[in-house]
Amino acid sequence: MNGEPALMPPGSGVELPDAPIGVVGAGTMGQGIAQVAAGGGMHVRLFDVADGAAERAVNRIGDLLKRAVDRGRSTQQSASETLRRLEPVHDLEELADCFMVIEAAPEDLAIKQDLFRDLAALCGPDTIIATNTSSIPVTAVASGIDNPERVVGMHFFNPVPLMKLVEVIAGMNSGARALAATREVARRMGREPIDAADGPGFLVNRCSRPFLLEAQRLMQERVADHHLIDRIARLGGGFRMGPFELSDLVGIDVGYDIARSFYELSHNEPRWQPTGIPPRLIAAGRLGRKSRRGYYTYDAEGRYRDEDPSARLPESASGQVEIIGQTTLADQLRRLAEGTGYTVVGREDGTSGPRALVIDARIANAGTGIHNPAGPVAVLCAGNSLAEASAGKDYAGFHCLPPMGETRLVELTRGTATSEFTAGATAHFFHAIGMHVVWVGDTPGLVLGACTSSGSATPPASCWAGSSAS
To answer: What is the pLDDT of residue 469?
Structure first.
């Protein structure tokens, strides 16, 4: 097996040596990296410090490949060839002649630095050493080793066989040769490499921190429970899974290590401060999917929740609806309302008579300037809470993101002054235009706005592409 030439299909023109690739760490990430590397035609040597861990990982890969063949997602020949290129090894020294070694060790700077020093001493000076760190700067990992220009970041995402993106991170001393070869290795694995800056969390995890941390804070503050927050993310935000489902998939312990690293590397930036929820789950042994218990409980088939409801059909409606605002969201609400039979009116057109609902869909200043409304009022809670927008008036709050029609869910909230009549009229309107309705506690941006706003109260303007704040 050691002398088997790797299959190197043409790619970007970067020449890769005809030598094995090493993977250190046979956990979930290391196993996935080894699988896609072997699937890309490279001979892989997999090492782990735990006795038998590498062999167990190869066996698990074999089971996954068999399942893929049984489901028609792969051929038996492809699965057999992939498995044949995987070699578990028992000593780090067996990686000495690899042209590249990818580290998938725990998210601990001291552990990674010790390992990189060992690899640098063991391997030749041209061997590329890549770290799969999720949050630790590559420059720090490479500190203190010879030839630091060969050290790069190569951050994969879980589950590796399904996630096509790989971040390629240049430390301060990373060389152009090592970076170019790393991008080509990613392409041979069937991944899409993107260049990311060397800082806490790089690109993707930097964006995902608010998504995860804000969700935990919302649950702590009882704005919504984890089931509802995840449902809002899926149906209202178009995410494949919500923040708590994602945490279970990654591993609650792994996510907490990343969160602590983020916080420390940012010099205790308040918005990155971890919550107390993950440590309690970890202490209880609830680590997520891998322990079959985390935020959710998983059965033998991996099931943990009911299927999401199908799209609601619009209902026939009548009456006048007043929609305030010159935003993309307001325009789409007008279109949907007219399609169900509502008559959409404005303050400027001189129309009189009672309104079924007055909707203030302005991104900024929602709730202000509504004098003597001719019906119940619902205001957009984007940059503020309902309490701020209503100033004690009988208003309901709502939050949803365009494009309406693709978005299937709207969040509603009520305050101490919100009457049952106003709450009912608001829910009825959104049901009529084909939206699922959920009620949450009052907070700026409600759930989706808080989780997608990078730590600020106002979601990014791109959420309402082409809109104004008026």
So the answer is: 31
| pLDDT tens-digit series, residues 198-255 | 988 888 888 888 789 999 999 999 999 999 999 999 999 999 899 999 999 989 998 8
| 2: pLDDT strictly greater than 70 | no
Segment 134-141 mean pLDDT = 91
Q: Do 144 and 126 have their domain in common?
A: yes
Residue 435 domain boundaries: 320-464
pLDDT attached to residue 350: 63
Q: Does the residue 16 lie in any domain?
A: no
Percent over 70 (pLDDT), the chain: 93
Other C-beta atoms lying within 10 Å of the C-beta of residue 248: 28
What is the spatial distance between Cα 169 and Cα 282, in angstroms, rounded to a whole number?
30
E strands present in 55-114? 86-89, 100-103
Residue 182, helix vs strand vs coil = helix
Choose among 388, 386, 359, 361: nearest CA to 375: 359
pLDDT on residue 454: 52
Containing 438, the helix (H) or strand (E) segment is strand 436-439
- Rounded to 5 degrees, what angle do the CA atoms 93, 96, 98 make? 135
For 152, residues 6+ apart whose C-beta sits below 8 A from its C-beta are 128, 129, 130, 131, 138, 168, 169, 170, 171, 174, 178, 179, 182
Q: Do the Cβ atoms of 199 and 377 come closer than 8 Å? A: no
* Residue 405 confidence (pLDDT) above 90: no
**Are residues 384 and 448 both part of a single domain?**
yes
**Residue 90 forms part of a structural domain:** yes
> Domain for residue 313, yes or no?
no
Q: What CATH number did the domain enclosing 272 receive?
A: 1.10.1040.50
Number of domains in the chain: 3
Q: Exposed, middle or buried by CB within 10 Å (0-12, 13-18, 19+), for 319? A: middle
User: Based on the domain organization, do 45 and 102 belong to the same domain?
Assistant: yes
